[in-house]
Write a structure and sequence with these properties.
The radius of gyration is 18 Å and the shape is globular. A 7-stranded mixed β-sheet has the order 1-7-6-2-5-3-4, sandwiched between helices. The chain starts with a helix and ends in a 7-residue tail after the last helix. The longest helix has 22 residues. The protein has one domain. With 224 residues, the protein is α/β, with parallel strands linked by helices.
Length: 224
């Protein structure tokens, strides 16, 4: 019986690994992150029934992705909608969370110390863009389920201006655990993500850029 149980567990694990490899949709230059990428996509598509427009990123070159932020499921949804690795700007306290810091470091997330040295995160994000990477920003500054129309942080427009990178807006809704972090991942949803064409904010100017971003990030998805 013990041997049968071991064989069953190993077989299920191997099937899970194979499913993750098949579902992997972005090359992270790390086999473990590629596997996690596949599992995240399976979670969002199968369990959370995600319907999405793929983010229309270029195959190479710098880009900035921005989205509204309503739950802890949002990063998973954005990873699922992207064909390239996303380097998230996240609050330092989240970056240093026990048990997850190693994963954030592996994924080359960019910690933001909003109290002591926010400029450092800005410069790190700018450097990532100069290296041709995709930086992911939640310009609302945190989960804003109950205050969806909070003004956006203007640093994203400055990043676009200095790097010349286009901004790719996206809007998330339909998350059952909106307003929460862990429960949003556990509670099953009918999640939706709508992507928009890129904004060339380095030519639009900061005021026009922020106005368009606020409109797109706060516009509900039309029902089919």
């Amino acid at each position: 019986m013990l041997l049968l149980a071991v064989v069953t567990v190993v077989s299920l694990f191997l099937l899970l690994v194979m499913a993750g490899w098949r579902a992997n949709g972005a090359h992270w230059d790390n086999w473990f992150l590629n596997l996690l990428d596949g599992w995240v996509r399976l979670l969002c598509r199968r369990y959370h029934r995600l319907r999405f427009d793929p983010i229309p990123l270029p195959t190479t070159g710098a880009a900035i992705v921005v989205s509204n932020h309503i739950s802890g499921l949002d990063p998973f949804i954005l990873v699922t909608a992207s064909a390239r690795p996303l380097h998230f700007m996240i609050a330092k306290e989240e970056y240093q969370r026990f048990g997850l810091n190693w994963l954030f470091r592996l994924g080359e997330c960019i910690p933001v110390d909003r109290d002591r040295n926010p400029k450092r995160a800005f410069l790190n994000a700018l450097q990532a863009l100069k290296e041709g990477r995709v930086v992911m920003v939640f310009p609302q500054g945190g989960i804003m389920h109950d205050k969806p129309h909070r003004r956006l942080k203007r640093g994203v427009a400055k990043l676009a201006e200095l790097s010349g990178a286009p901004i790719y807006p996206a809007h998330i809704e339909g998350v059952a655990g909106a307003g929460h972090v862990l429960s949003a991942i556990v509670v099953r949803s009918h999640a939706r993500l709508q992507s928009f064409p890129p904004l060339q904010c380095h030519t639009l100017g900061e005021a026009a850029c922020m106005e368009q971003l606020e409109r797109l990030l706060n516009t509900p998805i039309r029902k089919d």
